[in-house]
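Hi everyone,

Forwarding the result from last night's run.
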Amino acid sequence: MAKIAALDDLPPRPERDGAVAFASATELVAALRRRDLSSRELFETYLRRVERHNPALNAVVTLDAERALAQAAAANEAIARGEPVGPLHGLPITVKDSIETAGLRTTAGAAALADHVPERDADVVARLRSAGAIVFGKTNLPALAGDIQTYNDLFGTTNNPWDPTRTPGGSSGGSAAAIAAGLSALELGGDLGGSLRIPAHFCGVYGLKPTWGIVPGRGHIPPPPGTLRDLDVMAFGPLARAAVDLDRCLSVIAGPNAERAVAWRLELPPPRRASLAEYRLAAWLDDPDWSVDAEIVSLYARLAEALRGAGARVDADVRFAPLAEAHGVAQRLIQGGLALAGAVPDEAFRAQLDRVAAAAADDDTPPVRRARTVTQRVRDYGVAQERRLRLKAAWADFFREYDAFLCPVTPTAAIPHDQTPDRDARTITVNGAARPYNDLQTWCRRSGSSTSRSSSPRSGAPRRGCRWVSRSSARTSRTGRRSTSPAGSPRSSAGSRRRPATERCGNTSARPRRGSISRCRRTRERAGHSCVDGIQGRRGGRRSRHRAPKTDRHLPRQVTGAGRAVCSTNGD
């Protein structure tokens, strides 16, 4: 592993801050252990960057600076004493605002939860802290994680670091934007129907959705705070600037919860192949019924050729379970699972029942179709679960011949902001033709319906994205440890990481208000340009890159109190 340049060799700030901030989490942990860098200095670097760049992005919505500074100082002292440390020791990270953090406000972007401060961490957050990570902030999301874009009435709109007129995706949009802009070393998000993979794809970073069940799901909102039941299909996973960081984070968060750990444990396997030339890959890059923008298909074709050039076998004529079937199963499981977990309030559930009762039998419009899946009978939900198992068995057969499956994350690159209140009235443009907005999730849900892991890889080329679904094992459901960036990785010929336009052009945002970084400050905006690829891998995950819009909201400091939960029925 390459060593980060010693601090004496780094240029003065802000260039020095950027060199450190964009390093991978794995590189930063190594530098902390060598004492080339202190945890406090690293944390203060991210604080400066939040103050400088977050007004343009509105990615970080709550900070816990004082507690994080104390933890960073303690982390430095532990290393100085030579104490054993965890795999994330002293690393400053952020967490999606739908994931509960003890003593730190968790709102899920909902006004009803504006003052909700959990008393305990989500299991995954507790594991990250135990591994030495320092949680210093929360990142924005759509209200109740219910959209493919990131905006809400509580905090406003999050912009894409590569283009402020475009969305970073959702629902982990603030998470992906923070990683892409170098505001955090590592991010924890969650994914139901693309909530990690789509933002990774739109923002040009790496993301991983692990196989459902290998990471404890308690502590996510929705369902309401305090719910013990794991939400079907939803999985916590990391977003990072390097693929190796996904592996590092997964090794920390995976495994049974405390109650189940008394009876079983998880052992994830190593890669099945020693080199890329040994891998057998399948690629499904387009579909006549769910077409993908020609520019993205062209990128995928070049990637396939690059993989072949490296010696890998790539079959481009593979066709698997029909998209429509997989998407329909995912819809029933996601929306039915939300209802079963208590994530749909009684009043909203009754309204959906009334909609179904009033609809004609042949009415298949999106609102009626959604109402039917939310209010489906338990028997119908059980039938969907059986269909999922059959899809999962088909994937298992498929991966006896292939090691990984390459396909798009979405049919487009990052889309312009569209906050039309009626989600079903929104459209996207693919090859010059209008398509339903919800088609953005179709390719993601093809694999999500079987709860297989998937990931999105990073790419520097504008307006691109793809993902790689890898082989899974029924016991381990994990991808291999080694991964490679696709052709066109965002590095210059000199080897430096490509950065969002805000970083390349300097401070393009308005001057922030004076005061401590943990205090409120205006968010304005600005950013740069470009888009990316996504890949699903043997461990499960996805990633991406893109842009976003202006906003005149505040970055609030932590508050205390309690609130009640409400929930969305959009499913992601």
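The first strand starts at residue 60 and ends at 63.

Cheers,
N.
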